[in-house]
Amino acid sequence: MTNVVVLIKQVPDTGSERKLADDFALDRSIDPYLDEINEKAVEEALQIKEANGGEVTVLTVGPASATDAIRKALSMGADKAVHVQDDAMHGSDAIQTSWVIARALGTIEGVELVIAGNEATDGRVGAVPAILAEYLGLPQLTHMRKLTVEGDSIKGERETDEGIFELEASLPAIVSVNEKINEPRFPSFKGIMAAKKKEINVLSLAEIGVELDEVGAANAGTTVSGVTPKPAKQAGEKVVDEGDGGGKVAQFLIGQKII
User: How far is CA 253 from CA 154, 207, 241, in A?
Assistant: First the structure.
């Protein structure tokens, strides 16, 4: 039996133009959906449950609209959800968010494994799983492309530029997965209908023992001081092939340090 908690996040559509509020906080109301890497994390948790038994709980920290992301995860097959919802979280950075997640995990009984995506598509900080492991004093396996639970341990593979590394840790542990981990399942009609009846435990910061001076933009350790619009796309360089096109392309790639 392996009780797994999956950290999920609702993010703006990656194809939409990102907009910031006056306080430089990201406007998350633009075509929001469950982050793509989070779907893979949910899928991995479901596969671990199918192989070992147990229960899958999804956990998110966000506004009321994040319920849509929760329902998506529940429709995939997660058993229940915890939603930390508090306006005081607005503007919190990764360190503060990780602290809130750590406190929220304390409300879930029997947690043996926490799975997250390696980074969200909105902020791309990529540090929450590691920060969470530090707060909880647990081993961490990050950027994993393959996972297997065997008894009281979890093992898997991490791929880097230097090669593929096999990692192993004892449970309980924190794990983050990358885009190669799996292909998430599509929710069935039965799953979508069942998700409407599954439990979502909505918690405030006070209910998990977090003080207001520990969160929010005013207390964040990092701030956004300015933004620059993404530059417009420039026309590519054209190569006229007069019998020496291959050489010209090779010289261009060498100049860009691609080869």
Answer: 42, 57, 16
Helix boundaries (H) for the chain: 36-52, 67-76, 94-105, 128-136, 189-195, 245-255
Tell me 208's DSSP state. Answer: G
Sheet of 153-160: strands edge to edge? 163-170, 153-160, 140-150, 173-177, 113-117, 2-7, 54-61, 80-84, 200-203
d(CA 233, CA 3): 47
Q: What pLDDT, in 10s, does the model give residues 14-60?
A: 666 666 666 666 666 666 678 899 999 999 999 999 999 999 999 99
pTM over 0.70: yes
Q: Which residue has the tokens 């060498």?
A: 254
Helices (H) and strands (E) in the chain, counts: 6, 11
Confidence (pLDDT) at 25: 64
**In whole angstroms, what separates CA 190 from the centre of its chain?**
26
